[in-house]
Design brief:
The protein is 80% helix and 0% strand. It is built from nine helices and no strands. The longest helix is centred in the last third of the chain and has 26 residues, at 123-148. This is DUF2238 domain-containing protein. InterPro entries: YjdF-like (IPR014509).
Length: 200
């Protein structure tokens, strides 16, 4: 993991992924200067998450998608988009839960909790399960925030169940896509080498 994290970017997608991480850092500074310290704190919470795909050797395209998703989700809190746009909460829960569950699935592979050579179809079961667990944890965090920190946080039974259902659906779609699309950078490199050897 250390070698993956320290490896310099080599493709345009890898440069883009690192650029999103830099943008995340600049976002914290911008929020601190032009918004509030609380907003800066919300964006700062996203910074460690942005480093995970690089450390585990995620495919560059997935790294970019994940980085954009996490950054948009964090800024949506700062800009209050979840309240001002009726469908925004549903869309973010669908995409974010699916993408985050995919990265979590890859983390479990890296730590050999999930066998690297397991049937790829197992992702159809595991990724939605992870996504539902993440959704439940997130809803607990929202409940704790409303109960102990900010009573104005919007939390209702319907909202909680709806968010978990949409997150589970997004994770199911992600699990199905993983069957066809490699999510590890090493798998992508191996495929490129195989294609090059075939051409020669």
């Amino acid at each position: 993991m250390r070698s993956e994290f320290l490896r310099p970017p080599r493709s345009s997608a890898e440069w883009a992924a690192d650029g999103i991480r830099v943008l995340g850092l600049l976002s914290v500074a911008a929020a601190f200067l032009w918004w509030t310290p609380t907003d800066a704190g919300i964006l700062a919470l996203a910074l460690p998450a942005l480093l995970v795909p690089r450390a585990i050797g995620a495919r560059p395209g997935l790294d970019v998608l994940y980085g954009v998703t996490v950054t948009v989700a964090a800024w949506s809190n700062v800009l209050d988009l979840y309240r001002s746009i009726a469908w925004w909460d549903i869309a973010v829960h669908f995409v974010a839960t699916g993408v985050i569950a995919t990265i979590a699935f890859l983390v479990l592979r890296r730590f050999e909790v999930v066998p690297a050579r397991a049937d790829r179809r197992s992702s159809v079961v595991l990724v939605p399960t992870i996504g539902l667990a993440i959704s439940a944890l997130w809803e607990m965090v929202e409940w704790a925030g409303k109960t102990f920190l900010a009573p104005d946080i919007f939390v209702t039974y319907q909202d909680t169940i709806g968010d978990m259902a949409v997150g589970g659906l997004g994770s199911l779609v992600a699990g199905i896509l993983i069957i066809r699309i490699p999510i590890e950078r090493t798998a992508l490199v191996a495929a490129d080498r195989k294609e090059q050897s075939w051409r020669t």
